[in-house]
Amino acid sequence: MFSLEDAIANDGVESDEMAALKAAYARGQRWLEKRARPRRTVIEQLQERVDARRDPGGLARQALDLVGEQDATDEDRAKVEAIQQQLQREARERREAESRRKSETDRAAREAMQRAAKQQRLAFDQESARREQEVRSARLKSLVPSVRGGLKRAAGNGEMRTWQELQRKTGTRGLKGLSYEERVELLVLVGQKTPADEPLWSVLLTAHGDREALAMHRAVAAELGRDVAGNDLELIAELTAQRAELHRLHQ
Q: What is each CA distance from 132 to 23, 33, 122, 160, 181, in whole angstroms?
């Protein structure tokens, strides 16, 4: 076809030969058009599938092969190249979206595992705390009879006690090393059965001016629903009268 174009453009060709050349050239154009129709059809079908985000199947390979032929037009090649770029871009976007989904799925799975582990640790800690509290409560309850007995003897003798004296006179080793909170809990257990019109046993452990002992008695009284004076001097006077009452009741 290129040769025919050159020959037709040459003015030196005889008229009868020119007619033959033009006829051959027309036949060649018809032949090229015949070859171009299926190529354009394939390209159009490929474009429709790509635009619809459907799998192009074998059309992509077929279109590449067709525009690779010598008689393919630059326009067709440009269309197929644009489609290929679109396919690559969409494939990249799918990979990136899949990567994000996987990352989100992995993150959600990690967070779920972390929540489950946290809940498991919390449940374990709660169970451990419950068991420790049970052991602690059982240990403190076992001390109640000796503490109540020791304070009752002190009341009968008209005396007061410190924790050290109470431990020494009762011979109860479990009283040694108790924390402030454990002492309060123990005195609450000791005073639970005390009649409402009688002083609590903890009044015998409130030495004059001992702020910790006064605070402990306030805590015990609050747990047992007893009202106490807010001022230390008033509380000391109140406790002095209550100790006298305990001495009188148990002499």
A: 108, 93, 15, 32, 14
Contact between 201 and 190 under an 8 Å Cβ cutoff? The reply is: yes
What's the mean pLDDT in 66-88? 89
Q: How far is CA 151 from CA 141, 162, 186, 212, in A?
A: 16, 10, 13, 18
Which residue type does 177 have? G
**Average pLDDT of 38-64?**
88
Q: How far apart are CA 190 and CA 149, in angstroms?
A: 10
Structural contact between residues 174 and 189, judged by C-beta atoms closer than 8 angstroms: no
Hey, what amino acid is at 86?
A: Q
pLDDT at residue 165 tops 70: yes
Does the CA dihedral 226-229-235-237 come out positive or negative? negative
- Identify the DSSP state of 198: S
Which of 214, 212, 205 is CA-nearest to residue 232?
A: 214
pLDDT band at 210 (very low <50, low <70, confident <90, very high): confident
Residue 202: both structure tokens together: 């903890």
| Distance in angstroms (rounded) separating the CA atoms of residues 97 and 93 | 6
Residues 6+ apart with CB under 8 A from 185: 136, 137, 140
DSSP 56: -
Tokens 């032949």 belong to: 31
Q: Exposed, middle or buried, 201 (CB in 10 Å: 0-12/13-18/19+)?
A: buried
In Å, how far from its chain's centre is CA 138?
37
CA 129 – CA 66 distance, rounded (Å): 78
Mean local confidence (pLDDT), 96-109? 94
